[in-house]
Design a protein that fits this description.
Two copies of one chain form a homodimer. By secondary structure, chain A is mainly α. Chain A is about 75% helix and about 0% strand. A two-stranded antiparallel ribbon of chain A has the order 1-2. Chains A and B meet through helix 1, helix 2, helix 3, helix 6 and helix 11 of A and helix 1, helix 2, helix 3, helix 6 and helix 11 of B.
Chain lengths: ~450, ~450
Amino acid sequence: MLTQAGITVLPVVAILPLPSALQADPVAQLLVTLAVILGAAKLGGDLAERIGQPAVLGELLVGVILGNLGLVGVPWARGVLADPTVDALARLGAVLLLFEVGLESTVGDVLKVGARSFVVAVLGVVTPWVLGWGVGAWLLTAHTTYAHIFLGATLTATSVGITARVMQDLERSHTPEARIILGAAVIDDVLGLVILAGITSVISAANLGTDLSYGQLVLVLAKALVFLFGALVLGRMISPRLFGWTKRLRGRGLLLTTALVFCFLLAYLASVVGLAPIVGAYAAGLVLEKVHYENFTNGGERPLEELVRPIGTLLVPVFFVVMGMRVDLEAFTHPEVLGLAALLTVAAILGKQACALAGFGAGLDPLVIGIGMIPRGEVGLIFANLGLGLTLHGERIVDQRLYSAVVIMVVMSTLVTPPALKWAFARRRGVGRLRGVS
Amino acid sequence: MLTQAGITVLPVVAILPLPSALQADPVAQLLVTLAVILGAAKLGGDLAERIGQPAVLGELLVGVILGNLGLVGVPWARGVLADPTVDALARLGAVLLLFEVGLESTVGDVLKVGARSFVVAVLGVVTPWVLGWGVGAWLLTAHTTYAHIFLGATLTATSVGITARVMQDLERSHTPEARIILGAAVIDDVLGLVILAGITSVISAANLGTDLSYGQLVLVLAKALVFLFGALVLGRMISPRLFGWTKRLRGRGLLLTTALVFCFLLAYLASVVGLAPIVGAYAAGLVLEKVHYENFTNGGERPLEELVRPIGTLLVPVFFVVMGMRVDLEAFTHPEVLGLAALLTVAAILGKQACALAGFGAGLDPLVIGIGMIPRGEVGLIFANLGLGLTLHGERIVDQRLYSAVVIMVVMSTLVTPPALKWAFARRRGVGRLRGVS
């Protein structure tokens, strides 16, 4: 007998059951959705590049348009955003993007800039936190100090998908700045975990009238560090053996399959210790080095970057278009939210400029680092989501108005980064040219 | 504001909400599932090739094992088979496989063998139908003649995924036999539509005591033919212009994206007229020819086959492993079903050998054609599913016992094809060598 699903009786209409019954292939709807998303992504990317912007900005903006067609009576996006498969493909797209970007560097490249990444990450967490806390204390006098602290915390986490993609669009993924930013984003993810664990522990303790449990905080941090150590150090030891072993298997596509399995498992393990799956995917990309799979490429296989790229071509635009589709323009029409949102956005952007301090005096471009750290993306939303669910003495820490402001801050930080980063790189090229002339 | 989903409050556990909250990334589960499926597929493929079988047989069998781990207390497959995303990825895999195979031929190649494909398709529909009808009349004396006719009809449809994949494993996708079989499978799909519409109309008419509506039958046929004509003729005219136009866009991955959008739209349109999406995907592959996108390949892009292959490497094994997982070995333990199933399987296999008649006297291998047409796959199950839902004077046309027998027939036809086809090709090489010597 086949699946439960196989036994399900299809609905049979009396006179002409055929079309409705055979149309029942559930992939048909997904296919047309993907066709629309991919087509729109390429049109948006083309328009963005024509006005000198990275393609990803165009993908985000066509997403915003597709997602808000409901305002003109075409609620196409509602079904698409409710489809768990589209969501899963978008998330797979993010995993593959970070894997691709990771493949362009090695663990050694990242360790070289590790200390600097750490400084960037810490500055990029502390400054926006303090600024956000200040904005809360100034504007939200009716809220508790806990709410102000929590609001500041939503500004701390860097979401690196946008920056990674802009770097790729501009062919800058291999620069030291890119590595510093991506390394800092990984460290940020660990710091974010600890901050979130800390805040929720403090609030829980205040609720219950008990003491703060430092043991739990240490455990959260330890798990994340063990994962990163294991992935980067053990992973690098295992990788050449893994390819040596799979080379002995018979079949097609073994190099790509081995790499994908490695990436998917590390991304999964990252999520097990509480980190974002894309952190694991980036680590997997760093670990897999060309010399590890020379046995395949010497036999005529193309390098992994080339093999992974077509999968990214299918899935990565789904991630950015869907991200754009999730922007509900109605949130921008509430004046009482907009003021708070504007100040939060300023705090978020200025706060991350502290990261630039770590870029001075090493031949690096501080501005690129400061701007590259701006995007908040999903991590800020996870924070805000958690805040919606946290209560202190029966009152919510984050209310709907605060939540909407955080969402707008995330959207603005995402949309502002591609043109700003493009400008920062162009400016540097200009400086370089002048230097070359003088 | 972001999506409805974005606003959903994540569950917050009192003391340590972190790991459970951030693990909430729903892609994590999918990633580990894909890693298991891909890893198992490659191991199974390796073992199959070591004993001289096509890799796909190994993928199917590891699927059967994974799917029946529940018998030894590991019900891993239950969650996987219930996950709509895994199902969607498997179906996407089938679409990409047929697209890949279509890319290896042109519309002209298929039209050259069109008449022969038509004869193969008709023989391959009529003979199994008559045989299956006979088996029903002989064994199922308690059932109505309608049930016997319906049972025969479940044996008619060819499911071409397995054959396409075996041809690919053996590097025989470009042979005339492969084109005849794939062409016949497309025609089969059209004939299947008409048969199904016919039977259900007859039964509906018998139920209501009214006359059979021939108009509906003609409509079903007309829609399918209009689609195929439109896809192959208009599609071929549009394709070069499409690539000419997208070449002017700016951005990365435009060749692959254009091809994927074209494939997804044709697969969707096929499902709209009641055909299987894979028929549309195969048609799309046929239509897109190298000369249409020379503007891209001259600019250094790799040909489409190479760009599509990595996506297939990710998704196609998901299709075959999941297909194997759907085989419930418990169905094989019911003796009262097994006798009927065995005879049905024999009728299914022998019936399609009539197709071999169309292969004589043209330098073709009749045996390869006869065996290549054996697999029934999902189409037979859709038939049986419909039968479960059809009633005549309040009684089901197909009961659970009959359904299980059809399922076993489908499974056996699927598992028997890879080794049989491999044998048929090897035998021919043997014959060729003898001829070469004499």
